From TrEMBL:
Gene3D superfamilies in alphabetical order: 1.10.1740.10, Winged helix-like DNA-binding domain superfamily/Winged helix DNA-binding domain
Organism: Lutibacter profundi
One Pfam family here: Sigma70_r2
Species classification: Bacteria, Pseudomonadati, Bacteroidota, Flavobacteriia, Flavobacteriales
Residue span, RNA polymerase sigma factor 70 region 4 type domain: 127-178
Keywords (A to Z) from UniProt: DNA-binding, Sigma factor, Transcription, Transcription regulation
Annotated protein name in UniProt: RNA polymerase subunit sigma-70
Gene Ontology process terms (BP): DNA-templated transcription initiation
InterPro entries: RNA_pol_sigma-70-like (IPR039425), RNA_pol_sigma-70_dom (IPR014284), RNA_pol_sigma70_r2 (IPR007627), RNA_pol_sigma70_r4_t2 (IPR013249), RNA_pol_sigma_r2 (IPR013325), RNA_pol_sigma_r3/r4-like (IPR013324), WH-like_DNA-bd_sf (IPR036388)
SUPFAM superfamilies associated with the record: Sigma2 domain of RNA polymerase sigma factors, Sigma3 and sigma4 domains of RNA polymerase sigma factors
Length: 189
């Protein structure tokens, strides 16, 4: 017996139902409010243009997120191209399950003062961002996509037209260069 419960689109309620969710999803990947707002707006516009192609197999939000993911990838492609350069800022996680994911070693073990912790984390974030900016452009982009924004390996490879082994070589080289930079600029007190 075929399912007749296909999902339907309701574009008049997209902003009310999905804008905050899409914005939060985007801001965690681009770390710039204005760019995140633009990408969400572009997503809604593209969805309106493509609404006749919606087949109802996925929920409205899932469909919008799939469009948004393409917009984010296109954004990173654009800033990586020779046509447009843009400053990409990243957020650093200081608490919770994701703490320390972005660097593999030399994590301090004892923090006694919360104010000092906050100042030190801010300074560490600035030092790490400076080291990332010193990476070759492709290394920085792949490192951000895989390690910070947590794109899937297959998705990065497809979008950048590289093999998975090439991706892991780039990640390894980026981490090695970041470790050296951080040792020279942060840990050598």
């Amino acid at each position: 017996m075929p399912l007749t419960n296909k999902h339907k689109l309701n574009p008049t309620k997209w902003v009310i139902l999905h804008a905050d969710y899409l914005f939060n999803y985007t801001i965690s990947r681009v770390s710039n409010h204005d760019i995140a707002k633009d990408l969400v707006q572009d997503t809604f516009f593209a969805a309106l243009k493509a609404k006749d192609n919606f087949q109802g197999k996925a929920s409205e939000r899932t469909w919008l997120i799939s469009i948004l993911k393409r917009k984010i990838i296109d954004y990173y492609r654009k800033i990586n191209s020779a046509k447009g350069k843009a400053e990409v800022k990243m957020s650093f996680y200081t608490d919770g399950d994701r703490e320390g994911e972005w660097i593999e070693e030399c994590v301090p073990t004892d923090w006694n003062n919360e104010v000092e912790k906050s100042i030190e984390n801010d300074e560490l974030g600035v030092a790490l961002e400076e080291c990332i900016e010193d990476l070759p452009e492709k290394y920085a982009m792949v490192f951000r996509m895989k390690t910070i924004q947590q794109f899937e390996t297959e998705e990065i490879c497809k979008e950048l037209e590289i093999t998975s082994s090439n991706l892991w070589v780039i990640i390894h080289r980026a981490r090695t260069q970041l470790r050296k930079c951080m040792e020279e600029n942060w840990f050598k007190n």
